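User: Could you check the structure of this?
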Amino acid sequence: MRLRRDINLGTMLALPRASLGWRASLDEQLALLRDLGYQGVQAWDGFDRIHRAGLLPLGMARATRPAELDGIARRHRDQGLGFTNLHLGTGFETDAELDALAAALLDAQARHSHVLLVETHRATATQDIWRTLEWVKRFPGLRFTADLSHWYTGHELTYGGEFEQRRARLTPVLERVRAIHGRIGNSGCLQTPLDRPGDYLAHYQALWTATCAGFLRHAGPDEVLSFAPELLPMSVGEPPLWLHYQQATQAAPHDPWQGEPCDRFADAERLWRIARACFDAA
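Assistant: Sure, the predicted C-alpha cells are below.
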C-alpha cells in the first residue's frame, strides 16, 4: 500500500517555454517525467508512446450510456493500462439511470479485471455531493478518482465557516478513492497558483490527508493510491479549445509565462511533495 507518483498529461499541455517542464516534443516530455521519477502518465490516448518511454499508461474516458463501459474496460485492459479514470454520465440522470451506470461499470470491471474509477467532476454523475453519497450507499463497490477542486469550489465547502463539518461528510467517498487529481483551487476559482492568500492550501491538505487515511484503512494490501497533478492551461491548439482552468492574463512583452500566472509544472512538483507529506501524516 503506497502513494504512487503519477501525472496527468494535461499538465504538460501548452507549457510556456520558460517552464521547467517545457520540451520540444511529447517524447522528450515523457523522458523528462521518467527521469524525474514519475511512474504513471494519465492520458486520453497515445498509450503506446507512454509504454515506450518506460512509464505506466493510465486511461481517461467518458461514458454516458451503460453499454459503453464494457468496451472501454476491454480496450484499456488490452492496451495494458493501470486503470481508467471515467467522466461518467452528464449530471442529468435520474437515480435509476445512475444506478444502471454503476451496475454496468461494476460488471465491466469484474468481467475484464480492469479497474474503473469514477471521477468527482462537474457535468457528470458525481457533480452533486449528496447524490454521490446516496449513490455510494446503493453501490458500495464503486471506487473514485478525487478531483476535489470540483467539489471544493463548485459546492463552496468553506461556506458558513463549515469546512470541517462538510469535509467530514465526504468520508464515504474519500475512503473509496484510489486516485487523486492534484489540483488546488479556492472557493471562487477551480485552479489557482499555490502562493495566493487564503486558507485553501491547508484545506486541501486536510482533504488529501483524510483521503490517504481512508485508503490506508480500507484498501487491499496490493492496492496503490495514484497521485497525478492535473494542472490544465487556459486553452490549447489553434483555433483554441478553451479550457479556462489556468486563469491566464494578457501576456506582457517579454513575459516568460506568456500570460500564465505561474509555472504549472513547478506547481505539479510541489503538489507531489505536499501529497507525500499528507500520506506520511495519514
